[in-house]
Amino acid sequence: MTIKELAYIAQHHLQAHTGTQFKRAHIYELLAAAFGFNSYAALCAEAVFTEQSLSSRRAADFGEHIRDRCLEIGYRLDTATSVASALSALMTEHKFGLVTIPALITYLRDDSGYGPWTDDDEPRDRNEVRWWSSSDELVSPIMLDGLNAAAGRGHAAAHYALALIHDPTGDDFDAPGVGSDYWYIQAQNGRVLTGVEQEWADAHATRLAQDERFSLHLREAAKLGHQEALLELADRFNDPAIFEQETDSVIANPVRVADIAERMGRPEDAKKWLTVAARQGDTEAMLQLIEDYDRENLQQCWTWVYLAELLGVDLTEDDYVAIHENGSRYDDDVGGPMFVDGRDGVELEPISEAQDAAARRAAQEIFESLRRLTK
Question: Is the entire prediction scored with pTM above 0.85?
Answer without folding.
Answer: no
